[in-house]
Amino acid sequence: MRRTLTALIALSLSACSGGGGGSGSVAGGGGSTGSVTPTPTTTPTPSVAGCTLRERQDWAAAQLNEWYLFPETLPASLDPTPYASVGAYVDALTATARAQGRDRYFTYVTSIAEENAYYNSGSSAGFGFRLYLDGNRLYSAETFEGTSALTAGIDRGTEIQAIGTSAANLRNVSDILAGGGTAALTDALGPNTAGTSRTMRVNDAAAGTRVVTIAKTDYTLTPVSSRYGAKIIDDGGHRVGYVNLRTFINTADSPLRAAFAQFRAAGITEVIIDLRYNGGGLVSIAELMGNLMGANRATSDVFDYMTFRPSKSAENSTAYFAPQTQSIAPTRVAFIGTSSTASASELVVAGMLPYLGTSLALVGTNTYGKPVGQIAIDKTACDDRFRIIAFALQNRDHQGAYFTGLAGTVRASCRASDDIAYPMGDPREASTRAALDFIQGRSCTAISAVTATAAAQSATETGSAAAHELLAPARPSVPQRDVPGMF
Prior knowledge:
This protein is about 25% helix and about 25% strand. The chain is α+β, with helices and mostly antiparallel strands.
């Protein structure tokens, strides 16, 4: 049995347990890790029977007691009565593991319908950009194709200076932050529903300052950008493959294969894998990315081990390399990462590390730190999907306890900034430049193994603004967990 890094392990629960079929394993930023491909679940309109708050809370507690990777941290008993939602009760039950840095809101209840729509097609509703806070200034770090934001001329590097529901009530971003922190800023952007409209004053070098009104629409996220997601960079006559993967979802399969087929045809063996904003997703796609870099790997070579709690050891599994027709045999690989690089993204780096050693580098900053993954258990009648941290991940050499990020695990790293003045994959952009320099064997300054995760997490919980962080709501949607900063 294998899983999906947003890993949905196909768990079959009896009707008396209140569960439907599980959907798989995941490895997402707030997400999952595994390699069973999720099967779409037909989700009926939630019914009253079995779906009272208390029944749903009791069901969630029972699943945790059976599957949670850290059972010793669960309270012996906890009255659900004071908690106004299933999510609040789950947060209370997992508070000890969170305090230990082992489950930073990775265990949660979400909508079956919403998650299936995202993982199977990338479907979501929003303006279509990824927002980045630099102190009290707000920028688009990335804007997605086919969205209202890109149509309005908002792209990477555009500053959003003010937000309102009309031109008459625009409020400066700095004032919104001063009055209520990041929570007030995410509220100002409105709910994640199609048709929500906002007026913004924006500024960039291409078009100067202007006022635009844009509406949130339903759109399909392209996991590999059609503009800059995959290409061959000519760096002074040195040809290097470049792939930028936004998220590990099913629709990433074809563009990843196409990118590596291009590299293979061109004889490329040195590549940059840009995962700087990738919060994770399906383990199956993470394993595919490993396989696409495994032309010289044997089918007995281990990519990763998945290990459950002792009482569930029958679920343990090992993923081996499976070279594809598009696979290359890399000689040097630079992974671009940030504190938003998590879960499935980290698994790819860790999985390749034993085979590349110092020919693999982490470029940018330290990563998030999520060497664990979720299974999915469904209570179908209530449209509840319970994502439970149920397994740990390790590479061939059993490296896996990187809860503070990968900088302390990788043997080579190069510190670099995320320079939004230039497109990702542009040799002038700081992280891309540092990655190219590593590929060519130039010296660099190593990334500190001291993680910024704790500070970033504190900022999220307190609603304060952290410098150089993607904007995140306190309760992210399914897409926002794996595509940090998405609005």
